[in-house]
Amino acid sequence: MGIVDQAIADIKSITTDADGFAVPMTLTAPTGETAEINGLHTDISLAVDTEGAPVNSQQLHISFSEGALDGLGYPLRNANGVVKLSGHKVTVANSTGTDHTYVISQWMPDETTGLILCYCSIYTS
Fold first, then answer.
1. What would the pLDDT profile of 41-58 be if each residue is shown by its tens digit?
2. What's the pTM value of the predicted model, to 2 decimals?
3. SS3 letters for 58-114?
4. 27: how many CB neighbours lie within 10 A of its CB?
């Protein structure tokens, strides 16, 4: 196994290990497909100073290994093979155990390791 293959395996192991930092999450595509996987979740508030005016900003993001979706039939990539998560949602529990649903607003796939980082927005139906 080469170093890149080892990195892919490590990313999958780290992001899916429920005995480590991984938490269960459900991805939902706009077309209705769902996938229950483990991944990393962060929901923090940051104090941002915008030209002298402090603003409290919520930062929501998830990370998961593309390999966690293997065999689940989840539509992660479009017909051109590009990761496309427009309109996809993720449901994940916060530190109190309360489930929250977010809309994936930006995604940054690492095509070398298979790690997909997604910034999320609060979902309002």
1. 998 887 777 777 777 777
2. 0.88
3. EEEEEEEEHHHHCCCCCCCECCCCCECCCCCEEEEECCCCCEEEEEEEEEEECCCCC
4. 26
- Residues 121, 98: Cα–Cα separation, whole Å: 17
Quick: pLDDT tens for 97-109: 999 999 999 999 9
Distance CA 72, CA 42 (A): 24
Buried b (16+ CB within 10 A) or exposed e, 53-91: eeeeeeebbbbbbbbbbeeeebbbeeeeeeeebeebbbb
